[in-house]
Amino acid sequence: MKTSANVISTLPGKPAPRTARGSFHWLLVGVAVLFSAVFLVLPLLNVFAQALAAGLGPYWHALADPDTISAIRLTLIIAAISVPLNAIFGLAASWAIAKFEFRGKAFLLSLIDLPFSISPVVAGLLFVLLFGANGLLGHWLEVHQVKILFALPGMVFATIFVTFPYVARELIPIMRAQGREQEEAALTLGANGWRTFWHVTLPSVKWGLFYGIVLCNARAMGEFGAVAVVSGHIAGQTDTLPLRVEKLYNEFDPVAPFAVATLLALLAVATMLLKALLEWKTRHES
Amino acid sequence: MTKEEYLTKSPAAAVKGSSPANPLPGFSITLGFTILYLTVIVMVPIGALALKALGLSWKELWELATNDRAMAAYRLSLGASLAAALINAVFGSLLAWVLVRNPFPGRRLLDGLVDFPFALPTAVAGLTLASLFSEHGWLGQFLVPLGIKGAFSRLGVVIALTFVGLPFSVRTIQPEIETLDPAVQEAAKCLGASRWRRFFMITAPTLLPTVLTGFGLSFARALGEYGSIVFISGNLPFQTEIAPTLVVMRLDQFDYTGAISVAVVLMIFSFALLLTLNTLQGWAAKFQEP
């Protein structure tokens, strides 16, 4: 199963072969560039144009709103919890799956791919049915006064569900391609398992790991559907940046939703730049 | 790389049987952690849905899953996803082709931009597309007088789904175009085949399985999409409401049975699609063997 993680990561580095440049060549290029301009460039520029349409004053005012500040904080907290957990999961899963043979591996891989094919809304619903008042654990949680749904823990669960495959999916093919000869050599030379991992395995997968983390983080900070279902939409408390954009949009504010959206658009631009940098790095190292 | 490749191309698998026990440490702890994590994050929540669904009346579930509003939502979800995946199959192939075969100034920039819909949070995608195509937007001011309403309409749903699915299509097809053997083209050229004949007899059939895979991935992505649609569609029941939106609407009204019924249908759609895609990739892999 091809997944978004490896679809996005398989990028060419080779220069295009030289072909005759007739009028047909330029027609193809023209259509491709026009399509990309309408579908890729305009949407990006539009976010900033709308956010700054009334000048810098309203833009800063929208960003300085206490509810927006709290949304920024919540988004960062959720990413700070879920991304490291998913990175640890990714390392553990790829080690077990790429370096060892065992029964049920195909099933495990399917489970890891599952979030790619489940609608984020359905993912959110799963946690409502687990932790909600009518949910499986709802009664127990209420008696013990543990608040998961419509609070930070529920949003972290939903975010992890949607984003956990990214690091694992990035690392599994890399670790598999490298085989285990190098680790075996290190062990033969007397290094213990932990040292082998730190000095042999980790350095050889570091760019893949970093890229998986970048992707996972972009998804975690931008997740909308799953988090919307479990958040409860309490302004200043359970609104993340994307949810804050929606709320401001529904209030028909002409500038504020775009102002908040610029932060997320900058995140996307940073993600793309990091990806370009990592591709350049891996090309130069190999 | 397909799952089959992960499983069969492993160097460890190649020497299996001949080699002694795997000397690498940490197998049980990493596998144990992986299984624990997947159990807490995936299995238990899905189990909760299954238990809940089993505890409900089948008649009521069926009624809520198939009433007029739900059927209208599935029709729009499937129709718009299909349209978006088709657009992506055509323009995604074109874009991939140009990026690999037609060097031009700014090619690398365009190549990087293809990932933009993947990196951009879907809420922002919906927000900016709705504004672009609305009456006073950069594109809408020209299109709306022509009768083309790209925001708060079904067309808007197709536009947003095309946007989010584009990278899946391009990035699936691109590597395949890179591996096309130019010698085959040259041979056909020497034998006198015209540019169109070469395209339809050689290039198109070779790329077809991959284009179909890209189509399927883009379709799967579109079926579950919610974030961007909320902003651009208007969310009118029977008109611009997609299935995931209906799940959220029913949840907001505490209609758990209604939400579960549509969610189960959505999950059946995605599993069916997943199976089809796996079969398709198996076929594509076989197709590419010499």
**CATH homology-level superfamily of the domain at 78-242 in chain B:** MetI-like
Number of folding domains of chain A? 1
CATH architecture of the domain at 78-242 in chain B: Orthogonal Bundle
Indicate the structural class of chain B. Answer: mainly alpha
Largest interface: chains, residues each: A-B, 117 and 114 residues
- CATH level-1 class of chain A: Mainly Alpha
Task: Summarize the amount of helix of chain B as a percent range.
Answer: over 70%
Q: How would you explain this protein's 3D organization?
A:
By secondary structure, chain A is mainly α. Chain A contains 14 helices and no strands. Chain A has one domain: MetI-like (MetI-like fold, Orthogonal Bundle). The relative contact order of chain A is 0.14. Chain B is mainly alpha-helical and 290 residues long. Chain B is built from 15 helices and no strands. Chain B has helices at residues 3-8, 11-14, 27-55, 58-66, 68-101, 107-113, 116-119, 122-133, 140-143, 154-178, 182-190, 195-224, 227-232, 243-252, 256-288. Chain B starts with a helix and ends with a helix. In chain B, 43% of the residues are buried.
